Structures are given as C-alpha cells and as structure tokens.
Amino acid sequence: MFAVFAPSMPLKNPNAGFLAFADCSQPLAVASGQTGQTQLKERTWISVAKLSALPKVGKVKCTAISQELLAKFPVLKEALKGADGCADGTEVCEVSYGMSSSLMDTSLGISVPDREDYELSVTKAEAEAIAGELGISEPRRAILSYNDSLYVLYLRSAGTQDVSAQMESKFVEPVSFVPVPLEKGRSLNYTLTIKTWATYGGPVEIDLNATASARDSGLDARFEPSRLVIPERSEASTRLVIRAGEDAKDGVYRIRIGGSINHSLILQDSPCKYGSGCPIVKIGASEWGIENYGSDQYIGLGGRQPPEWLKATVETDKDAYSAGEDVKISAHLANEGAQAITLDNDTRLILTIYDDSNKYNENVYTIDSYIFGLKEPIVVEPGSKILLARAFQWDQKTFGFGVAPHDVEQGRYSIGMSFAGYNASVFHTETQFRIGLGSISKVPGAGNGGTDSNSGYNGTMIIIPRGLNGAEASSPPFYEPEEAHVKAGEEIRWKNEDGALHTATSSTPSSEDTGKLFDTDIIPPNRFSHPVVIKDPGEYSYFCQLHPWMSGKIIIVEPRATE
Question: What are the GO MF terms of this UniProt record (predicted)?
Fold first, then answer.
C-alpha cells in the first residue's frame, strides 16, 4: 500500500485535466532483458490507484490501455475496476490489519492513501508479461490512461515470509463478556469465519491454535480444521471446539486464540484482540477468573499495610519435587480477628514463580486469579481460614510470547504471593521449593501482618518498606534498618515490599565507584534481591538508581573470635 502524503495540486475536473499533463501516445520502450532486473520474488502482486491529484513534475510518459490489452491481461482489467471502486468507496481497500508499506514515488510526487489503493495478486509469469507490455523496469511503476482517467500501477514482490494479508475474522455465534457455563465432560462449539482481501501474491495459509487461559484448567480447546488456505478476496470457516474434561477444575477461563500466517508470521488479526472478544467459559460454581502468564509478563499489586490480625499465606504440598512433577500450590487467608470480614469485589490473587538462582529474579510462571462477576459476597468469619480461588498445579514449564512451553531447569524456586482483597490493603509473602535433589532453607515472607522478616534466614534481610511508591516526597527510612550492621562475609538480601521497582546500588549517584562493589539490579515488588556478600570491614553507602534520593548504609564488622 502507499503511505499518506500531502497531495499534489488537486483537480477540479480530474478526467478533463489529467491528460493534458501526460503523453500517452505510445507505451514506453523496454530494452531487451530489462524486465528481468526487477528480480521478482516468490510472491508478486500489482497495486493500482486512480490518481486524484496531478504529479508535481511536468508531462509524464504514460501508456494508453486498449481493450485488446485488457483482453490479453484480464487481471489488469480487474485491477483497474478495483481501483475505481477504491476511489468511489464501493470496494473495500483498507482494513485494520494487514501489510502496509511506505512505498511512494517521490520522483513524481505521487502518493496514494491506503483506502484508494487496490492490490491484486498475480503469478510471476503474469507479472513479467505485464512488465514487458507496459515498459515497467525499476522503479517498477507505470502511469496508465484508461477511460479518460490516469492510474498509477506498481509491480510489487516479496518473499513468502515477508508479507501477511488483509483479513478479518469473527465468530458467527454471539460472544460476550458473560461466561458460558460448561459442564464437565461436555463441549461448546463456535464457528470462526475468516475473510481475506489483498493477500499479496497468492492464497494465505493460516494455522490456528486455541488454549484456555489456565494451563491446569482441564479444558481442551482446538480448531477443526486447524489450517485454512484462503484465496484472495474469499472466505473460509473453521470450528472452535472447547471441551471440559471430567477432571476440569472449577473457575472462569478465557479462551485464547493464536496462530501463524504462511508458516512464519504471527497472526495479528483474531476475533480476540487485547484479551476480549473470545469465548469465556465457567466450570462449576466458582466466580474466580484464572489466567496464566509466562516469563514475558510481570504483574504487581500495591496498596496499604494489611491489619496484623489478617494473615495471607502461600504453601506447596512438598519442599522438593522431581523434575517434571506437578507442583501443587495453595493460598489461604486466615481471620484471627474478632469480627467477620467481606472481601472486596475487586479481590485479586497473584502468585509468581521465579528462579532463585537467576540474577535478575525473572519470573518463569504467573498465576493470576480475580473475582469475575461476584454474585455472592465472600465472607471470612472470625477464627476461620479460607482457600483463595482454588488449589493450583504447575507443570514445571515456562513460556513467553511466541515461545512454546518448555521445562524449567532444576534448582531452587520461590513463589511470591500478592493478595488484594480487603480494605485496599495488599498482602505480600513468599515460600520456596526445590526442583531436583537437595534440601532448602526457606526465606520467610515479609510484610505479612507483622511476620518477622529474619526468622529462619541466617543472613541479613533489609526491607524496602511499603508506601514509598517511588515518590520523592516520601520520608526516610527508605531501607530498614537504615544502618544495617553485618558481619564480614555474611549474606545480605533486600526484600522489596513497596509497590514500585527499586535497586540497592553501592556508593552514591555522583560517584565514579557507583555499583562497583554491588548492585542488586531491579527488584520488583514482592521480590528478593540476589545475595550480596561484603568481606572487608567498613561503612558502605548505597542508594536506589531509580530513585536517587533513597539511601541506606551497611556497616561491616569483624565477627567475634568465639563465632
């Protein structure tokens, strides 16, 4: 297609005025072998547009199109008719998705909006024959005269993996944000229709896939057939089948649709854009929506300090797992107060799994649970403990955008829990487990209703307190303790309980030694830094690179002889 350019001198009467600026007495001559210089690739097409403004140069050479020429090249006749339809609005020449290029003819000052450009696939043989007849060489352009109008024709070519298609997809059956009940052992069917316009050099091959938003849902979603081959300006349909297994887990699940075009390009147009427009199914009576994300997405929650009498915890069923074994995870909320509480309508639970050995603490898997259209309030009575959402299973796999699920490496992992559900407060806690052989020493979750952040951990834990949120107006201490006394050689970790990203970087912002002794890199909310060890006694200042006014100090002392 053509990028929008400031139009040249518009015509009051284009049909009468254009031909005065064009010499269409004879077609341009083509030197022997010249058309071969166009170096056509696997996919070829022509772009034709009816000119609505005069070129910025003087008279231009053009080719008068005869009926004999149109009879010889029916595709050319179809393209001219399509260009007329683009100009008068009777033809669809622009859609939301598809290829769009910035090709324009600066030598003539010609540019054509996408909505006026008609594109039609041709075979390589047709393209070479048209190029020879019309005198097209580089820059693969010809000005045509037909029915007292001028047209610009471009011959386009690209590799199979370099082009997408203009297309639109939609479900035949109505799809809404209201979850559709699905019984275990039963199926739902939806018909998906895909319509194409310009496909840039041949039919478009579309491979479709579908998955439930939670990998442990027990739902199987697939297309039958999963591959469609659709010619240009045509349409085809397939069926989306969603089946709930007998062991499907209660919850509300979105169906995600993906795929590829011509075996390589990511499918950009789908009926579910930005997470909406696809079916949503509900298993059982649960009102919890559940979704999983891979290593390319992090979700954090921020809020006020929760009351001490309300405890949020996350547990695994074991401390250590064999490679490939399902990790069973559950989160609970305990009310140790004297009165019943009701959870907020926007209650949300986020469990993030990450590799402790990773320097940057990058997550490998995220479980996101939220209340979806709550009908009955969730009440937690005094002295009671409830399971949040449901029990989860992680199959030890990670994935990302465009990356297929694959096994994680053996090692130590942590699960960070963020829970927002009562009086705008947010709970943060953590637990650890190991994949493979060996035992672990658990690092406790901090900030969970007064939990001692150093309990069970042999090193020094420094807390970045909640409520800073990166605001310069916030008051110290920015790190707790503000001055940490640490034995030489002892491990130090920082726990970020704030809702913003932070670092702990040695020295001061203006020093040449900034970060040379240690730098935790970015610590996301509800995450621990990687360990830091300082062997030499002395006083060491540090600060947050993202918020330079935040500072702290570590005082390293020699261990006593009896230790």
Answer: copper ion binding; electron transfer activity
Distance CA 219, CA 279 (A): 13
* List of domains in the chain: 14-158 (no CATH), 167-286 (2.60.40.10), 310-435 (2.60.40.10), 460-557 (2.60.40.420)
Q: What is the DSSP string of 15-81?
A: HHHGGGGEE-SSPPP--TTGGGGG---SEEEEEEEE--B--SSS-EE-EEPPHHHHHH-HHHHHHHH
Walking along the chain (563 residues) 10 residues at a time, the average pLDDT comes out as: 30 40 49 46 86 58 87 93 90 60 47 74 89 78 86 82 77 89 96 90 88 95 95 95 97 90 65 69 94 82 85 92 94 96 92 76 87 84 96 93 84 90 88 72 37 52 79 74 91 86 91 90 81 93 91 90 53
Is the entire prediction scored with pTM above 0.90? no
Query: CA-to-CA distance for 268 and 256, rounded, in angstroms?
Result: 13
Q: How far is CA 366 from CA 293, 397, 509, in A?
A: 5, 11, 34
Distance separating alpha carbons of residues 442 and 534, to the nearest angstrom: 22
CB 215 within 8 A of CB 171: no
Cβ partners under 8 Å of residue 505, min gap 6: 514, 515, 518, 519, 520, 542, 543, 544, 545
DSSP state of 530: P
- Cα–Cα distance for residue pair 506/551, rounded to 1 Å: 10
- On whether the CB atoms of residues 323 and 435 are closer than 8 A, the answer is yes
Reduced to 3 states (helix: H, G, I; strand: E, B; else coil), residue 348 is strand
